[in-house]
């Protein structure tokens, strides 16, 4: 009797390259949720040694950066300038824009419990203390606002963001260098002088932001066929007010750095030297600030394209 041949047994198809990971009966991979490749890699002593070397390199890099950064800027001192509160920020912004009737302008101090040295209170506890939170936020806001207004006018281009940031940064650097040079020539010394000057140089951006925003609002209400003389005068009036407010604020705030008020320091400064410091403070607060604020406020100005 003829019988048909038995059906062929199905064979497993392997890739042409072969697979090194084949299930073995009773193998370690059975019942495990981790792929054998990753499990073997993580358990490899060479991989563990690589992780340790990488971790050590990262920690060494962080330690190197902290040591080199502390060589130029004290981190605890820098944190002092960012010790602010919401109420301080609001009050300080009002002081920068409306400084006319503020009293007093002297900074508050306290005695250190460890070294018995006189220390200035942080901005959170003293409205007359300079901070870096407002200048940094105003600096960034100015750059973004300038590019935004240029986009609304149809004058935005990709290079504008970098150009605006570079111009603002260069102006701040030039201003700080000029201040340091003036302090050196006038023999003005102060432990926290550099960071104080950096903070005070950034308050101008508050007035510039107000000038740009109000100027754009005035231009938005102007009719296309109307003359631009009225809006130009209003923009100039806002700019002049913000400039005068910032100049008066700097004139009174920097007085404790350039013109000490206590009797001991006053007796050690000659009358001619004190007059030079007064003239330097006036030139910086009015002449230099007017030039820099005008350049920064004109940075985003441009004709509106149709």
Look at the structure and give the mean pLDDT.
Answer: 78
Q: Major sheet, described briefly?
A: 2 strands, antiparallel
> How would you describe the shape?
globular
Approximate helicity band: 55-70%
Number of helices: 12
Structural class determined from secondary elements:
mainly alpha
Q: What Rg, in angstroms, do the CA atoms define?
A: 33 Å
Order of helices and strands: HHHHEEHHHHHHHH
Arrangement of strands in the largest sheet: 1-2
Uncertain ranges: 13-32, 301-306
What does this structure look like?
By secondary structure, the chain is mainly α. The chain has twelve helices and two strands, in the order H-H-H-H-E-E-H-H-H-H-H-H-H-H.
Features:
306 residues; mainly alpha; two-stranded antiparallel ribbon; 12 helices; 63% helix; globular; disordered C terminus
Concise structural overview:
The protein is mostly helical.
Topology:
Blueprint: H1 36-42, H2 45-72, H3 75-81, H4 86-97, E1 109-111, E2 118-120, H5 133-153, H6 159-185, H7 193-201, H8 204-221, H9 229-253, H10 255-258, H11 263-268, H12 271-298
Antiparallel strand pairs: 1-2
Helix pairs in contact: 5-6, 5-8, 6-7, 6-12, 8-9, 8-12, 9-12
């Amino acid at each position: 009797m003829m019988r048909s041949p038995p059906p062929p047994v199905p064979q497993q198809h392997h890739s042409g390259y072969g697979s090194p990971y084949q299930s073995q009966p009773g193998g370690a991979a059975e019942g495990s949720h981790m792929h054998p490749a990753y499990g073997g890699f993580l358990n490899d002593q060479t991989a563990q040694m690589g992780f340790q070397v990488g971790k050590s390199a990262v920690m060494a890099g962080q330690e190197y950066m902290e040591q080199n950064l502390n060589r130029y800027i004290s981190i605890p001192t820098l944190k002092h300038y960012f010790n602010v509160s919401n109420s301080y920020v609001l009050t300080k912004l009002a002081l920068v824009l409306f400084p006319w009737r503020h009293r007093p302008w002297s900074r508050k101090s306290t005695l250190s419990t460890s070294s018995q040295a006189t220390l200035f209170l942080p901005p959170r506890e003293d409205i007359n203390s300079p901070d870096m939170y407002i200048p940094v936020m105003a600096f960034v806001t100015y750059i973004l606002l300038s590019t935004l207004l240029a986009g609304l006018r149809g004058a935005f281009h990709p290079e504008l963001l970098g150009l605006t940031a570079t111009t603002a940064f260069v102006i701040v650097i030039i201003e700080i260098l000029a201040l340091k040079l003036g302090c050196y020539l006038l023999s003005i010394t102060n432990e926290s002088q550099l960071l104080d000057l950096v903070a005070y140089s950034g308050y101008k951006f508050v007035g510039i932001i107000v000038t740009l925003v109000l100027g754009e609002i005035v231009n938005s209400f102007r009719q296309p066929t109307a003359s631009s003389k009225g809006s130009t005068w209003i923009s100039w009036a806002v700019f002049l007010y913000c400039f005068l407010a910032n100049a008066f604020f700097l004139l009174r705030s920097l007085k404790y750095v350039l013109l000490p008020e206590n009797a001991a320091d006053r007796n050690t400064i000659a009358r001619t030297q004190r007059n030079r410091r007064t003239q330097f403070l006036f030139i910086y607060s009015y002449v230099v600030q007017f030039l820099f604020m005008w350049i920064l406020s004109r940075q985003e100005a441009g004709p509106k394209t149709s």
